[in-house]
Amino acid sequence: MKLTLLLDLDGTLLDSDMDKFISVYFHKLGNALGEYVAPKRMLKFLMQGTQAMIENDSPTVTLEEVFSREFYPNLGVEREVLDSAIADFYENIFPTLAPLTKACPEAVDFVEWAFAQGHTVVISTNPLFPKSAIYHRLRWAGLEPERYPFDIISSFETFHFSKPNPAYLAEVLSRIGWEDNPILVVGDDPVRDLQGAQGLGL
Fold first, then answer.
1. What residues have CB less than 8 Å from 43, skipping those under 6 apart?
2. 107 within 8 A of 12, measured Cβ to Cβ
3. Measuring CA to CA, which of 2, 38, 173, 190 is 20 to 30 A from 27?
4. How far is it, in rounded angstroms, from Cα 22 to Cα 17?
């Protein structure tokens, strides 16, 4: 029997203390953008933009668009300048966070088994991060997106809803055609992962 597997990333496929990870991540991002905006000011509007993404319920704007309209206008810096610095951060500095995480060999074994069985495998990580950050974390987990043919890897560039909004999982399933297969949601968080699944009747 073919299954549709919706797999969370952080805390599920990749072992990490997210509180510590986010703290170091924000600190390094603040330093990277410190030439252009004070870290405290940047963090204030980063959090404001993140909260706006979590609360978004509109299918007409991507999470990236929601974040951008809360973040950039409040910093007093040309977006093109910040975008260049942010791109450099994700390419050169974000990878230094890898030691804060740990690959789970059994998770890699499970994913390889799933593909060998012909199951549909989706990386249904909360799409509050850009694609580049999510791809880095998949590589840290030993699940290189260049190697494994995941049907979907959710990120803020293309998704409109986030966890635990049931609309997030509905959006995931709509993109793979609402397959008739049994659907399994696999995650570590009873609110972000399971509440959304239950809200959709999964």
1. 26, 30
2. yes
3. 190
4. 9
Nearest to 134 by CA among 122, 145, 146: 145
CB atoms within 10 A of CB 9: 24
Please check whether residue 155 is in contact with residue 187, taking contact to mean a CB–CB distance below 8 angstroms. Answer: no
The pTM of this model reads 0.93
Nearest Cα to 64, choosing from 185, 155, 173?
155
Q: How many CB atoms lie within 10 A of CB 103?
A: 16
Report the candidate in 163, 159, 147, 150 with the shortest Cα–Cα distance to residue 196: 163
Q: Which residues contact 53 (CB under 8 A, 6 or more apart)?
A: 63, 66, 67, 128, 156, 162
Q: Which tokens go with 7?
A: 């797999």
Strands 14-16 and 101-103 turn out to be antiparallel
Q: Name the phi and psi angles at 16, rounded to 5.
A: -160, 145
Q: For 11-37, write each residue's pLDDT tens digit.
A: 999 999 989 999 999 999 999 999 999
